[in-house]
Amino acid sequence: MTRKRDRRPARIFGDIDLVLKAPRVRDAWPDETYREQVFHTERAGMRFRTHITVTFSPTVVRTLDRIRNTTGADWVWHSTWVEQPEDIIRLTSLIRGLHGGDFVQAPRRNGLGELPTGWKGERIRQYMDTHGATDFVVLDDELWKWEDTLEEYAADHDVRFLPIQTDGSWTMSPGLEPHHLRAIESFLTADRTAPA
User: In terms of pTM, does the model score above 0.90?
Assistant: First the structure.
């Protein structure tokens, strides 16, 4: 006998570096007319502007939006960019997709301006505790650093967890590839039942 899981919408926690800024995105999507644009951001409390070259695949953005729309999954950004959410909003306008997402709580930096190890895993756990535990996907190029924390959370709360980590470091990663997107869609559309 099986029992139905909570039908609360699943969540996709997306990291901006993985989704949008992978330098080798054209390796994963050779037939894609990828876009490369300079994004200007002004960081609060800093006296300089940052100019970031954003290289992304429109196919990845469109596919993630389609998956969100067809599965009803909620999108939540977990990135150092959550310190400046207005930059994320402007960036989603630039790429014409992934609009309307939520944000994990901004991390706290120490006196040296450094982030604590594993802050993303902790912020995702806090977000789930605040908004309700549900099945979730995490997209991050450094997920291996704190994946155990989320596996433990999923087991403790009887929810499913799909980790999506790209191959290589940020400087070497082609970003999200077709097999990653297929895995996300398959996970979110699977019959959410569990043994009683």
Answer: no
Which segment, 60-64, 161-165, 189-193, is predicted with the most confidence on average?
161-165
Q: Which residues contact 156 (CB under 8 A, 6 or more apart)?
A: none
Q: What is the mean pLDDT of the chain?
A: 78
**8-state DSSP, 119:** H
How far apart CA 7 and CA 146 sit, in angstroms, is 27
CA 132, CA 118: separation in Å to the nearest integer?
A: 21
Nearest to 101 by CA among 37, 15, 170: 15
- Give residue 46's pLDDT band: very low, low, confident or very high (50, 70, 90): very low
For 17, residues 6+ apart whose C-beta sits below 8 A from its C-beta are: 79, 141, 170
Cα(119)–Cα(121) distance, integer angstroms:
6
Give Cβ neighbours of residue 146 (< 8 Å, ≥ 6 apart): 117, 118, 120, 121, 122
Which is higher by pLDDT, 15 or 19? 15
